[in-house]
Amino acid sequence: MENTGTASTFDYTTLAQDPAWLGLKNAATLLSELQVKDGSVPEPADHSAATAYIETIQASIMELAQYFEHDRGYLDLLVADFSKWVGAGLGVPDFLDSLMAFTPQQHRVDGLGHLVVFPMYTQNGSTSRHVEAVLVEAIWPEFIGELEAGSYSNKLFVPLRFIDFTPGYHSNSAVLFPESVAVRETPSFTWGAIFQDREAARFRRVVREAAKVTRLDLPADALELLDSQALAEETFVMWDLIHDRTHMRGDLPFDPFMIKQRMPYFLYSLEELRCDLTAFRESVAVEKDEKASPDARKHAKLVQYAVIFDRIFRFAITGTRVRNYDGLGGQLLFAWLHQHHVLHWTDTKLSIDWANVPEVVIALGHEIEDLYWRSIDRPKLAHWLAAYDLVSATLTPNPASTWAKGSDALPLMGPMREITDQVMDDEFPLSMFYEALNKKMTAVIESTAGITGASASVN
After folding, report:
1. C-alpha to C-alpha distance for 360 and 369, rounded to whole angstroms
2. What per-residue confidence (pLDDT) applies to 6?
3. How many angstroms separate the CA atoms of 240 and 168, rounded?
4. Residue ranges per domain, the chain?
5. Which residues, 6+ apart, have CB-to-CB distance to 284 below 8 Å?
6. What is the pLDDT, as a whole number, of residue 303?
7. Quick one: pLDDT at residue 268?
8. Among 55, 287, 311, 444, which has the highest number of CB atoms less than 10 A from its own CB?
9. The whole model's pTM is what?
10. Quick one: three-class SS letters along 287-319?
11. How far apart are the first and last CA of the chain?
12. Given this model, what pLDDT does residue 3 score?
């Protein structure tokens, strides 16, 4: 049964200085230095030290378990999985038993903490399955419970805030997914967690600087969003609640998560952008819904700012230019807004006609949804070509692109991988606007690695 309490009465942030946590964190960090990519400790000479670190981790877990009665079954199995790993000679770890017992989606209570320890990789961080430890607390404001219980049901969604973590999360990673854990077989995954405090903190830092650089006059409520970490966190929870569920909904011509499929990266761009534009559209609807609570309607307006600003200011110029699908989605949204005359870059000053933005943004969402609907009846290659046409109708491809020359230039009779290989790493290069913006924003974007809500509040 899901715990539906409104708030935790214990302050889990105090555990960041608890000797048991600090001992666990140190032991996990030292243990990870002995592990190789698959999580094993291959050198027999390291086994004695690794075993000692694991014993410290186990003792710390048992000491800290008193604060996590809601996770007691998981923590007991976690200690057992560590023992089995040692007993098996510290080969490739298998933490399936403890993973299946960890059910944070059943305890979405504002401020309720979790102690998470697994051999796992961290998206946008380490790709190795090393032992990582994370202290977190749930973010579940009342209006989110209202939305989730109504039209935006998402039983798998777990919004979190960092309390403390091992070095693998001192990165850009803002997610915790069960599929990242080392296990003997792939189970059916039942939850996905996102660190909204990290998303909110880097959004606030990047957007504030971008508005300064572009001389954008921000509306009063957008300024309020940038001034408040708590308000930004709640806004990102609402955005992600709707985004996450959208992957499974709609007229989808393919596996919504495109798992184990190799395809041109611009298709991933359109899928992620589709989900964000759905969050935008639904937020417009909630804002206008007189039956929604005042909190829900207020945050709905802020989600609209968050989607646009995060996409055009951070996504577009974050990361490398190698198949950067989130970057491409940001570029596409900016160009669409500009070409539909609601975003203006005039006299080296950015301005946005906010009254007309919703209609234009929703129209781009409809374009992608129409592509999907039509592609239910199309062969895969025809869908790929149609998707490329959609993107290239707004963004200019690389002049050296084979795809830009049209279908006659592509090896259409060859294997699909050969067609995918013709997509350039940077198929849609940055515009001159973004080249200039990128130079001025690089330092602030890089400064957000490892940021948390707490560290953002201090700075």
Report:
1. 15
2. 62
3. 23
4. 12-190, 200-453
5. 300, 304, 358, 362
6. 98
7. 93
8. 311
9. 0.94
10. HHCCCCCHHHHHHHHHHHHHHHHHHHHHHHHCC
11. 40
12. 59
